[in-house]
Design goal:
The complex is a heterodimer of chains A (about 300) and B (about 750). Helices cover about 45% and strands about 20% of the residues of chain A. Chain A has about 300 residues and is α/β, with parallel strands linked by helices. Chain A has two domains: about 5-35 and about 80-305, von Willebrand factor, type A domain (Rossmann fold); about 45-75, no CATH class. In chain A, the strands form three sheets. A six-stranded mixed β-sheet of chain A has the order 5-4-3-6-7-10, sandwiched between helices. A two-stranded antiparallel sheet of chain A has the order 1-2. In chain A, strands 8-9 form a two-stranded antiparallel ribbon. In chain A, strand 8 and strand 9 (about 240) form a beta hairpin. Chain A is elongated. Residues about 1-5, about 30-40 and about 305-308 of chain A have low confidence and may be disordered. The longest helix of chain B is centred in the first third of the chain and has 37 residues, at about 40-75. In chain B, helix 5 runs antiparallel to helix 6 (about 170-180), helix 7 (about 190-200) packs parallel to helix 9 (about 230-240) and helix 10 crosses helix 14 (about 580-595). Chain B folds into five domains: about 10-30 and about 45-80 and about 720-740, no CATH class; about 85-255 and about 685-715, Rossmann fold (3-Layer(aba) Sandwich); about 260-360, Immunoglobulins (Immunoglobulin-like, Sandwich); about 365-595, Rossmann fold, CATH 3.40.50.880; about 605-670, Immunoglobulins (Immunoglobulin-like), CATH 2.60.40.10. The two termini of chain B are about 45 Å apart. With about 750 residues, chain B is of the alpha/beta class. Chain B contains 18 helices and 32 strands. Chain B is elongated and about 135 Å long. Classes of the chains: A alpha/beta (about 300), B alpha/beta (about 750). The interface of A and B includes residues 235 and 238 of A.
Chain lengths: ~300, ~750
């Protein structure tokens, strides 16, 4: 695989989101001389009762011989990480400027699929939340290899494209997630920064980990427009006829102010916040995920070892 | 008054209108925006809230700068100038320039040092006229905007080309371009008179000292000082102008041109008869600086050379007269030309030829109108006159005159154009219409001889013929003095109280035969009855009077013809003169004198309106006139009080014009004014002395410099262009700073 496949321009030519994610991840790893993430040894952790649908290959027949009950072996890897990918499906995510290949939504989907693929490959459980003002699709985390396809299908389906409402979605999610979960929020986060941070703060309070992939279109960051332009707001936010050159500096100042607020808020809550623009190769997203996962597992390992 | 302070007000209007252009472009630009779906509207609205006021201000500033650039550029092209009020505050005022341009015949001379003119119709024209036009172009261009310009043509008769202060330079130039050189004479006095009217009207708009009259031409001495060297007409007109405006006479600066010309051509024979020698005299003048030698005068009759006469050397400024006899074999109208041929350099060859139209008769037809005709030759009021004009008829001798007697009752039906002279011999009163016909007849060159007599109705003649000096008769009949002679006493001795004839001088051609003959039977004759005359019209002559001092013979011209009034009878009823031998001489001389106008109506000068009497029968034909260039000219037939005339002109060129009326053709000889041949420029010092008023005589170059200096001090165009340049730099800087596409 070529690392060039991480480039959104190339990935955008690949119609299948599934294939796109696979290629991105493979592409990521093919470029490494030695993986800094060699994988976790498959180590027995405990048993749990067999439930329908479990793979019979994981039935501990020895225990069955002793107790005549079906128990499923649980390994350390299986419970490495419970990951939930949150993808913003609001109308603002459909924006794509002329010089880039993907909308923010497509980029977010690719990013989510790649992370999910990587997680499943690492035996992490992955779930998916697609949202706009509310959660429009919810797929529970699972580490079953076939689960990835469910996630891809969930990402491929588009919602009604309403306004962004991060705070209510995070509040809702906080109710639904009983276990500690690594939340990967992929969104432009256009909305009230304070509200967004409040939602994240509640999740952190419930001891969830969170990673924010703040997705931007390059035009939103550079504001390269010239000549009289009428900006017609997505999400029915009105329209404005103006001379972009004249207000570019003011606009960029507003963006910088917004980004700084988000960055500082996330840092204060020990949330990994990363800014992406849709022309950025996906390896940054994958790296971020792996770094976060590794940190998380190190914390758990020390906690488990410490408990023995 | 100018309605604006722009030399080209139309451009100024366009400039004002174009000031809207940036606004329109701005609005169009705003309406032609591109649409951009946009997600981050929150940031955009926030940025807009912070920068909207600033952007608006920048846009207004940029828009105003662009409006100022475009309108400023347009206004600069319109060439603004200080308005009168501002100039007044600055201690200056607008000026009025009246250009008098000589476009007479002599201006077509190309001087030896001639350089082509610069512009307009005179482009590449090295003639004096081309130079004058070039100078006028320079003056118009150099005249400060806001100055009014008027223009006068000096070709006779001088006329105003632009009779008011014109401010539109293009219009003035158009008029200048349309002005063309002519073959007419210079009318400097007339032109100055026209200019005087213009500057007098201009006093309302231009303060004293701000009106200038420029005389631009070859400044001939003959035009300024006249033939006699006095500066009467032109100088007095110039001095009248000098009371209101500054008179600037532009010194042409060219040397005197070599020119020899035929300045006169006439016949000295009393009568032009067929098969009789007719003597012609031609005046040949040398206006150049070198003696003309070996010149020849060539006489032609109807384009056929009939005589060559060697001319004695002519010194500069001299005139010599050459003469020759020509026999014309065929009676009728003819054209004689005299041409001087010389190897000497001649700058103006057009005046080397002169034409003369003559009428050659077998015998001069004279109509004698009798008050009481009788079959006996000597009876009737016209009997003696008829006998006097046709002596020796019964002996078969050649007749000079061909008199025809007619009753006054037959006169209204008689065509007058068939005669050279009409004699009214004591006829009773004539109808008004007949007087009108007689006026037309005389005006066209005919002669009228009026005798007193018993039948004359003085009151009617005075009312219809004299008309308080406006009519045909040169005097009004007064009281009748003395007793009438008794019938049959033709040879009886006169009464002791009878008076005789007397003359103060014998210079008049009518009395030329009596010079030194105090014993002439003319002065032996006795007059027993005559009419006193009153109110002799100005210009009339009285060559013969009675011994009591009363006028006996009154002569006057009318149009091209002449009128003679004898205050006694043509027969023996009032005087015994008809029985005297010198009666014949006196009557022949009178009739010759009265016929001198014959042919005169067919010899005229360039610029004349040609009027020629025609028979009523010819009026049925449409007149056609061809000129010397064989081109057709407009002609018309007019009838006034029963008198028909064919008219055309004014004649624009010298040469032979031919009038065709049906089968009849008549030729007309048109000559240059001999004044135009005298192209010697006026001496500046002599002119200064003659003018007796403050007039400048300056060179063309000095004039240009003076006006250019005034021009620079009043025009704003250059300053405005500089301001536009600064604005353009400002606009570029602002556009670069705030966005070039705004």
């Amino acid at each position: 695989m070529q690392r060039g496949l991480l480039d959104p321009k190339i990935l955008a030519r690949i119609g299948s989101l599934e294939l796109r994610a696979r290629l991105a991840v493979e592409g990521y790893f093919s470029g490494m001389h030695r993986s800094p993430f060699p994988g976790v040894s498959i180590e027995f952790a405990d048993h749990r009762a067999y439930t329908q649908g479990d793979d019979i290959r994981h039935v501990d027949w020895k225990v069955y011989g002793r107790t005549d009950k079906y128990y499923i072996k649980r390994y350390e890897q299986e419970t490495n990480l419970n990951c939930m990918v949150l993808v913003d499906d609001s109308e603002s995510m459909t924006y794509r400027s002329a010089d880039v290949a993907m909308t923010k939504r497509q980029y977010a989907a690719s990013m989510a699929a790649a992370v999910a693929y990587l997680a499943l490959r690492q035996r992490d459980a992955v779930g998916l939340v697609v949202f706009d003002e509310t959660i429009t699709r919810f797929i529970r985390p699972s580490n079953h290899p076939a689960h990835w396809r469910h996630i891809v299908q969930g990402l491929a389906a588009h919602g009604a494209g309403r306004k962004t409402g991060v705070r209510p979605v995070l509040d809702d999610l906080a109710e639904r997630l009983p276990r500690r979960t690594l939340l990967i929020l992929i969104s432009d986060l256009f909305g009230d920064v304070e509200e967004t941070l409040m939602g994240l703060k509640r999740l952190r309070y419930q001891r969830h980990e969170a990673v924010v992939f703040n997705v931007w279109d390059p035009a939103e960051l550079n504001f390269p427009f010239k000549g009289p332009t009428r900006f017609e707001g997505l999400e029915s936010t009105g329209r404005l006829l103006t001379q972009p050159e004249a207000m570019r500096s003011q606009y960029l100042a507003e963006v910088a102010r917004f980004v700084e607020s988000l960055r500082r808020g996330c840092r204060d809550m020990q949330i990994e916040w990363t800014q992406f623009d849709t022309s950025t190769p996906l390896d940054a997203a994958i790296s971020t995920y792996l770094v976060t996962r590794s940190a998380r597992l190190r914390q758990r390992s020390s906690r488990v070892l410490g408990g023995r | 008054m100018p309605t604006s302070t722009f030399l080209h007000p139309a451009f100024a209007a366009v400039a004002v209108a174009s000031a809207l252009l940036p606004v329109v472009i701005h609005l169009l630009h705003r309406s032609r925006f591109r649409r951009e779906p946009w997600a981050a509207m929150g940031f955009l609205f926030a940025a807009n809230r912070r920068s909207a006021r600033r952007i608006q201000l920048e846009q207004w500033l940029l828009l105003l700068t662009r409006i100022a650039v475009i309108s400023g550029l347009g206004l600069a092209v319109a060439r603004p100038f200080f308005p009168a009020a501002v100039l007044g505050a600055l201690g200056r005022s607008r000026s009025h320039h009246v250009l008098l341009i000589d476009n007479s015949a002599s201006m077509q001379i190309v001087d030896a040092d001639g350089q082509p003119g610069a512009a307009g119709a005179a482009a590449n024209d090295a003639s004096r006229f081309g130079r004058a036009v070039e100078l006028c172009e320079s003056l118009i261009a150099a005249a400060p905007p806001g100055d009014g310009i008027s223009m006068v043509s000096l070709a006779a008769p001088a006329s105003a080309v632009i009779d008011h202060p014109a401010y539109d330079r293009r219009g003035v130039r158009d008029q200048l371009t349309r002005l063309s050189p002519t073959w007419q004479a210079t009318d400097i006095a007339g032109g100055l008179g026209v200019a005087l009217d213009i500057v007098r009207r201009g006093r309302a708009d231009f303060p004293p000292g701000s009106q200038f009259v420029y005389v631009i031409g070859d400044q001939p001495a003959s035009g300024w000082l006249g033939q006699s060297g006095d500066a009467a007409g032109s100088a007095s007109a110039a001095c009248q102008i000098a009371e209101t405006a500054s008179v600037v006479i532009v010194d042409p600066g060219h040397p005197n041109a070599a020119n020899v010309a035929v300045t006169g051509l006439r016949t000295t024979s009393t009568l032009a008869g067929a098969e009789l020698p007719i003597r012609f005299e031609a005046d040949v003048s040398n206006f150049g600086n070198e003696t003309v030698r070996d010149a020849t005068l060539r006489l032609s009759l109807d384009d056929r050379i009939v005589h060559r006469v060697a001319i004695q050397p002519i010194a500069p400024g001299d005139t010599t007269t050459a003469s020759a006899n020509v026999i014309v074999s065929q009676a009728g109208p003819h054209t004689v030309s005299a041409t001087v041929v010389s190897d000497a350099v001649d700058a103006f060859p057009r005046d080397n030829v002169r034409l003369l139209a003559i009428d050659v008769d077998d015998a001069v037809p004279i109509l004698l109108v009798d008050a009481h005709p009788a079959p006996d030759a000597l009876n009737g009021s016209a009997g003696y006159l008829a006998a006097a004009l046709s002596p020796g008829t019964d002996r078969g001798e050649h007749r000079t005159f061909s008199p025809r007697r007619l009753s006054h009752r037959e006169l209204p039906a008689e065509p007058l154009d068939d005669y050279a002279v009409v004699a009214l011999c004591g006829v009773p009163s004539l109808e008004t219409e007949l007087w009108s016909r007689l006026e037309g007849f005389v005006a066209a060159g005919g002669g009228l001889l009026v005798f007193a007599g018993d039948g004359v109705n003085a009151a009617d003649d005075n009312e219809r013929g004299y008309r308080n000096g406006a009519g045909l008769l040169p005097c009004a009949w007064g009281e009748t003095v003395g007793e009438a002679r008794r019938t049959g006493e033709s040879s009886a001795p006169a009464a002791a109280d009878a008076i005789g004839f007397a003359a103060d001088a014998f210079t008049h051609p009518v009395l030329a035969d009596f010079t030194g003959r105090t014993d002439s039977s003319l002065f032996q004759a006795r007059i027993e009855r005559f009419n006193r005359v009153q109110l002799v019209r100005e210009g009339a002559e009285v060559p013969l009077h009675y011994t009591d001092g009363s006028p006996a013979l009154v002569l006057a011209t009318h149009g091209r013809g002449s009128v003679a009034v004898m205050t006694t009878s043509a027969d023996m009823s009032w005087t015994n003169l008809p029985a005297r031998g010198d009666y014949v001489s006196l009557m022949v001389n009178l009739c010759v004198y009265l016929t001198r106008g014959r042919g005169a109506s067919r010899t005229c000068q360039v610029g004349d309106e040609v009027r020629y009497p025609i028979p009523a029968t010819a009026s049925a034909f449409a007149p056609h006139v061809t000129g010397p260039d064989r081109g057709a000219h407009d002609a018309r037939v007019l009838v006034n009080d029963g008198v028909y005339t064919a008219e055309f002109g004014p004649a624009e060129d010298a040469g032979v014009y031919t009038l065709t009326l049906g089968p009849q053709q008549t030729t007309f000889a048109v000559n240059l004014d001999p004044m135009e041949s005298d192209t010697r420029p006026v001496n500046a010092e002599a002119l200064r002395e003659a003018l007796e008023c403050d007039a400048s005589i300056v060179s063309a170059d000095d004039l240009r410099k003076t006006i250019l200096q005034r021009h620079r001090s009043s025009e704003l165009g250059d300053r405005m262009l500089f301001a536009v340049l600064i604005l353009l730099v400002a606009e570029s800087w602002l556009a670069a700073k705030w966005g070039a596409s705004r």
